Amino acid sequence: MKIILLGPPGAGKGTQAKFISEEYSIPHISTGDIFRKNISDKTPLGIEAKEYLDKGQLVPDEVTINIVKDRLSEDDCESGFLLDGFPRTVYQAEALDSFLNANDNKIDMVLLIDVPRELIFDRMTGRRICPSCGASYHVKFNPPKLKDKCDICNNDIIQRKDDTESTVKDRLDVYEKQTEPLINYYKEQGVISAIEGSGEINQVFQRAKNALGAICK
Ligand code: ADP
Ligand code: ADP
Ligand code: ZN
Asked: Which residues are recorded as binding AMP (predicted)?
């Protein structure tokens, strides 16, 4: 299965991606996680990407597209993948389509997680992440079992630098201007399926499975 998760920052894409990738045994590819890993390793890509992430702006399309193409060319993506946070512009979506086309492939489903705007600020300012495995927690809504430790790898969890109120505002603007047009782009292809992202994490996962059931046997 080749799936894209779409939705505003804070919709719960990363949280659901962990469950979906396990349920369907497909790799979870988060461009945000890839950038953050490169930033912490201080690679040339990380140094370039950092200024964009800090401001809540998008890393340039060409840079991002090349990273995703490389990742999708790895063996574990042969039978499917789950893209989280990519594409974020129509240009990226077109590049992805032509890359997949060239390999006689296509996206099976774009799962749109819809969430009321008023939930987003609380979700994002309370978010904590594991810098090692990318797992996403929330101080109130989804705390780790041990205080400030990742359930999966026991690392210290941290607050993202771009999860402050003012950067969140900028990221929502970026989403509305640059990413939301993708909804129509994929509607025209007839591959979009929308689920409600409010409610318990588990409840959202049930909705995701119901939607994905339409494309997997
Ligand atoms: P995204 O990847 O779309 O930016 P995340 O999965 O990181 O979103 O979720 C954003 C924040 O909201 C995290 O702190 C996460 O723990 C929390 N969260 C995710 N899903 C829910 C939910 N259904 N209810 C409450 N909080 C949630
Ligand atoms: P969120 O969980 O809030 O949706 P991500 O972790 O997906 O955030 O992305 C964090 C940041 O990484 C973005 O604000 C942007 O700077 C950069 N980024 C991630 N994916 C892309 C992409 N597809 N194109 C450009 N920039 C990206
Ligand atoms: Zn972890």
From this structure: 31, 36, 57-59, 85-88, 92, 160, 171
Domain range list for the chain: 2-26+79-116+179-215
pLDDT tens for 54-113 read 999 999 999 999 999 999 999 999 989 999 999 999 999 999 999 999 989 999 999 999
Radius of gyration of the chain measured on its C-alpha atoms: 16
* pTM to 2 decimal places: 0.96
State whether the beta carbon of 7 lies less than 6 angstroms from ligand 2.
Answer: no
Q: Is the CB of 56 under 6 A from ligand 2?
A: yes
Of the candidates 111, 144, 112, the one whose C-alpha atom is nearest the C-alpha of residue 128 is 144
Ligand nearest to the CA of 156: 3
| Token code pair at residue 100 | 């997949």
Q: Does domain 2-26+79-116+179-215 have CATH number 3.40.630.30?
A: no
Q: Would the CB of 127 count as within 6 Å of ligand 1?
A: yes
